[in-house]
Amino acid sequence: MVREETEFVNWEAVIGLEVHIELSTKSKMFCGCSTDYFTAKPNTHTCPVCLGLPGAMPKANKLAIKYTQLIGLALNCKTRTGSKFDRKNYFYPDLAKGFQISQYDLPFSENGHMFITTNGRTKKIGITRAHLEEDTGKLIHTKLNGTRLTLVDFNRSGVPLIEIVTEPDISSSLEAKTYARNLQQVVRYLKVSDADMEKGSMRIEPNVSLRKVTKGQESMVKELPPYKVELKNINSFKFAEKAIEYEIKRQRKILESGKMPKQETRGWNETKQETVSQRSKEEAHDYRYFPEPDLPPFAFEEKYFKSISEEIPELPDEKRKRFTKDYSLAENDARTLTEGVELAKFFEEAAGAYKKDPKIVANWITGEVLRRLNEENKTISDSPLLPASLAELLFLIDKGEITKANGKEILANMIKTGDDPRATVIKLKVTGISDIKLEEIVIQTISRNPKAIEDYKKGKEASLMFLIGQVQRITKGQAKPEKVREFVLRKLSEAD
Amino acid sequence: MSKVKIDINHVSKLANLNLTKEEKEKFEKQLSSVLTYISQLNEIETEGVEPIGHITGMVNVLREDEPRPSLSQEDSLLNASKKQNGFFQVDSIFEE
Amino acid sequence: MKKLKGLTIKEASKLLEAKEISAKELVADYISRAKKLNKNLNSFLTFAENEAIDQAERIDKLRRDNQKLSPLAGIPFAAKDIFSTKGIKTTAGSKVLESYIPVYDATVVGKLFEAGACIVGKTNQDAWAHGSSGENSDFRPTKNPYDTSRVPGGSSSGSAVATAADQVIFATGTDTGGSIRLPAAFCNVVGLKPTYGRVSRYGIIAMASSLDSIGHFTKTVFDNALVLNTTAGLDEMDATTSPLKIDNYTDEIRKSPSGLKVGLPKEYFEGLNKEIKQNITKALNVLERQGVIIENVSLPHTKYGVATYYIIQPSEVSSNLARYDGIRFGYDRDNFGAEAKRRIILGTYTLSSGYYDAYYLKAMKIRRLIRQDFIKAFKKVDVIITPTSASLPFKFEEKTDDPLTMYLSDIYTTNINLAGIPSLNVPCGFIDNLPTGMQIIGPDFSEKLLYRVGHSYEQESRWFERRPNL
To answer: pLDDT grade, residue B42 (50/70/90)?
Structure first.
């Protein structure tokens, strides 16, 4: 390692993220073809427009534009009153028209930010722009009689796609993952996309480079490195994290040997656990942008933005803060409960029905409910469990009608069936013990153990414990210990 | 008027055209005279002139998000030079 | 059988309505003539005999059932081969699309079919509409029916010729820089370039999207208005069509032009060929006698038109022709002809990194200045009249060696496309037995006014009666 500078401190990762998200409109961006292509037969969701047939012309989907603006507003962006579409010209077999309709200098939204928290530290990530474009077709690389060939399906061609680009403000794989997760949460809260990494409706392309940090300059504004490596083919948050980590190590090694990493595109290879250089026949990049002549431009009024911003629901950050404040929840529980808007809603309804202590409700949901759901790879919306039923279950436990242990078993069944807790208690024959029955047992126990009562009256505390133990033995542990103690003490005082 | 020359190798690559040597020479010469003719536009002062944008002056021409029937797979592939199980077929785009 | 040659839409429609002839008879007569003359003129690339006859039979049946029909019902027409026709080969005059069969109809084609018009075939053209002479057809050059050693003008060559030679009664065309008006002038027919956005472009193979205007050829001005009545209007598939209500274009066509102000832009008359100037002057005298007031106007940016046009148009061409990769339709890019390749190269260059501002952006600024010239002039006058072409129909291969000379053939027409306004070519007499034309230019959506002026002149001059000797 070259050590000509004594003040050398470390290598710092400089990461920017480009995220593509398919919007969940019913029809494509510029034609009426259905966007519901995921399991469809190839080239059945296609028409002259998205196949780029000679003479076909685009017409912009109003809702897709609104979704883009909503995302922009949710990411604290400035939404443009004047905007337009441009043509991005390049050749690739999945690009029907030989150009992609995208946005160049006037994106619908720009200059926003998002806060992320990692290891207890909060950081602001700048968002450069959020623009709307159309997705490309899909290529399948295969072999036929020994010859390599590529097949093209244009069902995805023309699906509305938003591209969200950050500033190079991210400095670790964890930060990148956190940002991407937050972003996914936001678009899901907005209900503008399912943002599913595995299905490809959310795609992350990090660009990674390293710069040298020298002593005394740690917190100064630093220059960007003279190269960057773009990472592609990442279809889970985990892969994104691993690819970035691998890339940081790889580049560091090159830099430490005194060389400069190559500016290139690399893909994540999960089997090899490494990034690999991607070379395809794609031409040099000169996209020759110009305004799309087939689509007149857009002019929006501020009052339009005001009216659509009213449609933005409470976003994850605000909701989390409110949960910690209003329900006195721990930060971690609040975070878990606000991960999805459905779960948050479930919690609030259950807490509202239970009233007594929201923390107990939170514990049950973050613990038992999620554990059971995860076991079956389900989310709260997949389960018929009602918030009111959970609240009722907690009441039954409080009243001692069932024990906590039984409560868990009952809950597991309720998550599957959606039945109410009382019905489930009967169904599963896990009776708890009623107050009357407990009183009966206590009276019986006291009358059968006169010796112990005498000892107790003489001040022998151990006798009390003996009596409680006897009651517990008869109830087979189904009564709450505090309750047994309370009942025994009351009966003893009555016996005076 | 000054002579303007096109880097024909670079531009034909960008344009995805395979030109013969003869074509390259011919086009380079012909287009140079066209570009020289075009360079008379430099006479016009356009400082402060807004580019025209869209000639119709229309804005916000949009469609509602309503799905419509697509073409059949057969029609989509009708004019394809090569097809395979409902897909368009092209030569492998990845180099070995 | 009755001699059906030389009919206008108006005349044919009257005969059909009176049941003096059947649509089938009419269409069959035109098809046989079209086929016969095509050997000499090359105006058609594809015939659609079955489609035309089927449609004629359908119309005859509707007529027997006393259905109310459009004046275009049963009328034989041709479409430029750049209009998508479902099930009928559409080549745009290029080898790339030599065997391309569209799966959908262009909006305009659909409207004409719905009105009952019968498609005789698809007409020859400069490939991709690139050209002013018809010589850029990848198949064969179309010939001028008035002198077959000369070009018919382009790019909508076949449509102009088919109309002039009585192969059809009307034909569709596209005009990006003069491609309707120039061949109309060279072939003694009426040709309209409507206001940009008045007629849908959907399904018509794009040349330069911000300039392409969809029009048609007829023998008379009245016929021209009849066709526009069917083709004009908002199309939900074309976001650039105007929502403005369409006029009834035949209405008021007979109204005297008396009192209208006609502007003569001095830039179009400087250095003009003496004989052409004489012809225009005679035409203007006719109009003056009919009561129009002639005034001089100036369109100061006129001389920059072709240069501006040859930035914007190839730029858009380079992008519009990018889809022809031989995967989904057509043959690969090696099949482009020389002119298409030239324009793709030119446009790719003018849009490429580092040149965009100097070319495309600059051109879009000058385009505004050119449009402003017209807007200013139309504050003074109602319409503007200029020659359509600075030259007479020229000999084959006279200009093919030098693209720039060919490009300059459009010197009187490109600016109107840049401005987006309508212009109507009306025949205005012959020089050495070769046709000439004048264009009547108006402000946005003034087609009705152009027809009124054109009709008035035509009814007195009656040049349309001078048919080619074939």
So the answer is: very high
**Domain of residue A17, residue span:** 9-307
Q: C199 φ, ψ to 5°?
A: -120, 135
State which residues form the domain around B35. Answer: 8-43
Residue A3 lies in a domain: no
pLDDT for the residue numbered A283 = 47
DSSP string, A325-352: HHS---HHHHHHHTSSHHHHHHHHHHHH
Of the candidates A181, A88, A178, the residue with the CA atom closest to the CA atom of residue A131: A88
Give the integer Cα–Cα distance in Å for C127 and C337: 8
Task: Nearest by CB to B55, from C330, C407, C420: name it.
Answer: C420
Q: Å from C351 to nearest chain B CA?
A: 10
Dihedral sign (CA C282, C283, C286, C288): negative
Q: Is A218 found in the same domain as A80? A: yes
Q: Are residues A146 and A87 in the same domain?
A: yes
Identify the CATH number of the domain in which residue B18 sits.
1.10.20
User: So which residues of C are the catalytic ones?
Assistant: 80, 155, 179
User: Average pLDDT over chain A, rounded to whole?
Assistant: 91
Q: Is the pLDDT of residue C377 over 90?
A: yes
In this structure, chain B runs to a length of 96
Picking from A235, A209, A234, the residue whose alpha carbon sits closest to that of residue A223 is: A209
If one compares C247 and C10, the residue with the highest pLDDT of the two is: C10
Q: What are the E-state strand segments in A226-291? A: 229-232, 264-269, 274-277, 290-291
Angular region, A260: left φ>0, alpha ψ -120 to 50, beta rest = beta
Chains that touch A (3 or more CB pairs under 8 A): B, C
List, edge to edge, every strand of the sheet that includes B83-84: A138-144, A147-153, B87-91, B83-84
Predicted local distance difference test score (pLDDT) of residue A281: 46
Q: For residues A215 and A10, give the distance between their C-alpha atoms in angstroms, rounded to a whole number.
A: 9
CATH code of residue C359 = 3.90.1300.10
CATH of the domain at A479: 1.10.10.410
Q: Does B68 touch chain C (CB under 8 A)?
A: no
Token representation of residue A62: 């109003």
| Phi, psi angle pair for C385, to nearest 5° | -120, 135
**Averaged pLDDT of chain B:** 92
Domain total for chain A? Answer: 3
The model's pLDDT over C100-142, given as tens digits with 9 standing for 90+, comes to: 999 999 999 999 999 999 999 999 999 999 999 999 999 999 9
Interface of C with A (CB under 8 A): 83-84, 90, 92, 97, 100, 102-104, 106, 201-206, 208-210, 236-240, 315-316, 318-319, 321-325, 327-329, 348, 351-353, 356, 360
Q: Please determine, for residue A279, whether its predicted confidence score (pLDDT) is greater than 70.
A: no
> What mean pLDDT is predicted for residues A289-293?
97
The answer to whether A42 contacts B90, with C-beta atoms less than 8 Å apart, is: no
Does the beta-carbon distance from B65 to A153 stay under 8 Å? no
Residue B44 in contact with partner chain A when CB distance is under 8 A: no
B30 interaction partners in chain C (CB closer than 8 Å): 342, 402-404
Are the CB atoms for C318 and C351 separated by under 8 Å?
A: yes
Higher local confidence (pLDDT), A456 or C424: C424
Q: What is the enclosing helix (H) or strand (E) of B65?
A: none
Average confidence (pLDDT) over A208-220: 79
Domain, as residue range, for C375: 9-465
* In the predicted structure, residue C325 carries a pLDDT above the cut 80: yes
Q: Give the residue among A393, A394, A396, A373 at the shortest CA–CA distance from A383.
A: A373
Could you give the CA distance from residue A464 to residue C407 in angstroms, rounded to a whole number? Answer: 112
Quick one: pLDDT band at residue B2, thresholds 50, 70, 90? low
A284 CB neighbours in chain C (<8 A) are none
Q: How many domains are contained in chain B?
A: 1
Residue C85 lies in a domain: yes
The angle subtended at Cα A451 by Cα A449 and Cα A456, nearest 5°, is 100
